[in-house]
What does this fold into?
Amino acid sequence: MVIILFIIPGCNGEPIQPPPPEPTIFADVSGYDSLHFETVAMATFNKYKENAIQLNIGGSYDIGGKRYALAISVFYLDTILATGTFKFRPTKISNEEYAGGSFVIKQGDVQKEFKSDSGIINITELNESIIKGTFNFFGSDLSKTQHIKVQNGILNIK
It folds into this structure.
């Protein structure tokens, strides 16, 4: 005689929760703080100025009592999104396509923001539902005395 037992999750009346979404943005961070950052990224497209558009990508990650947030913006001089390589700049530059990035570390009431000084983002695939590419940037805090390096960045938004 063979007895087969089936264990069915959720039999106690509680709904079965779906698995969490897979991360869509990854990066290794070093300098002021060190960690492997990964989270589900959100992307939006906004009008930047007349006849220009801005792609915003970002997400946050909580670990060890700290909240880490990564934000990247790519500024296009046209209303048509395109793949390509864009340089990270510390400030907005008129009449040039470029990227801006920031990495924020928050612990309790203390928050440190590092804005991109240099680096590149290479967008290899882009439409309203897919953003793929790689990125690396160096950032500094407001006083320019503390720094962070965001490297091996991968975008895989589907």
